[in-house]
Fold this protein.
Amino acid sequence: MDKRAPHIATAREQPIGKRGYHHGNLRAALVNATRDLLAARGPQGFTLADAARKAGVSAAAPYRHFTDRDALMRAVANEGFILFGKRIFTATSEHCDPREALAAMARAYLGFARTEPGYYAAMFAFPKGDEALPDEEHDAAFKLLISTITSILAERRLPEQAAGPLAFRIWSLSHGVATLDAIGHLEYSAMSAEQILVDGAMALLAAAGQPPE
Amino acid sequence: MDKRAPHIATAREQPIGKRGYHHGNLRAALVNATRDLLAARGPQGFTLADAARKAGVSAAAPYRHFTDRDALMRAVANEGFILFGKRIFTATSEHCDPREALAAMARAYLGFARTEPGYYAAMFAFPKGDEALPDEEHDAAFKLLISTITSILAERRLPEQAAGPLAFRIWSLSHGVATLDAIGHLEYSAMSAEQILVDGAMALLAAAGQPPE
DNA sequence: TGTACATCAGTGAACGCGCGTTCACTGATGTAC
DNA sequence: TGTACATCAGTGAACGCGCGTTCACTGATGTAC
């Protein structure tokens, strides 16, 4: 299927240290180092030199694998989108009821942002439409969201063109919860970030097709 | 009232150039320069040297007004919170109907994020609880949100303890819409970012107290 | 199986640059008399 | 009103530093014979 997948999957458990002249999997090690630096210091909070140091390699070595600093960051975003799509897909596919699938999707979204803050930061560090980003990968998760919502609307005999706006609302809520949670703004809420998100998504869903109160 | 207010209000139209040895209002000029740099290049995307250059002053001059780079950024966040609170307050106070007030608040939120991306970036560049940030100022807007929601719940004879969770959902949605909009992710939606936000906020409100569908 | 050789991943020294910060200074401003 | 002086905002040169990037190189690896 995806040629990049195995390489990504094994990249994280790359043995650090005790290597000879050749690193073995420097590309993956640099991507991982950058991801971790982004997680710790935010977007723009990494340097090529830092990433090389973290991978245990000279500052010039990255140039064998990436044309420049930007290309390395883009690679992190790429892998992020791919991993994100997989996580969302896996979480959703465990459920038959589309409403449960949607809730699982929302939980997986927040879970990804929390456990992979580096990937998440890289994914949103480039404006939409930026050439080198895998739109298909990103759109895959969004399309899954649309189709899940469409199923729910169909069950309730509501017009399916409501799915698009609903998807953007739910995505916006998810992104908002994830980013506010990341900087501690939801900490003193009575509800957990997960509850805020899942309940909110369900509320947005429930209101669809309803008269505007 | 607020001693800083006039200074903030006039800071932007500071005449650039044609000054003598003394700048006149360097502090404000540096804050504005930093705000603009943040808007153009994102958080961490500014340097003290850049800000000084933009204000037409030597690289050492900022140290007369700020202890270091971080303090300058914090000052931008501070002014951002204050201006933000004012804009939200003004927008809300024009409406008697609390539902209209809430919609106006949502529109003002997005409007602020769009017209003041520099302030907005600075405001969310520090984790919640960061000492030098004006919690009162920030909480002022949030409290206004809570009280507006509480009014709406009261009108509908719903328990007012629902206001907190509802406020966090609406804030998360607002932040999500604002940040996704800023990087172009809502551009190809059938609805405008404003519609996504206002309709979404109203939907969250409508679902409150409703049975979970 | 062993040897010669091409390949190319990683080295380390070097570069020019712009950064944050310090320092002794200078000169505009405002106030005391 | 005029002068002397204290204040302090902004200067400009200097510092040490780490960055991104380049380059000729080195040495591990794998392949052809």
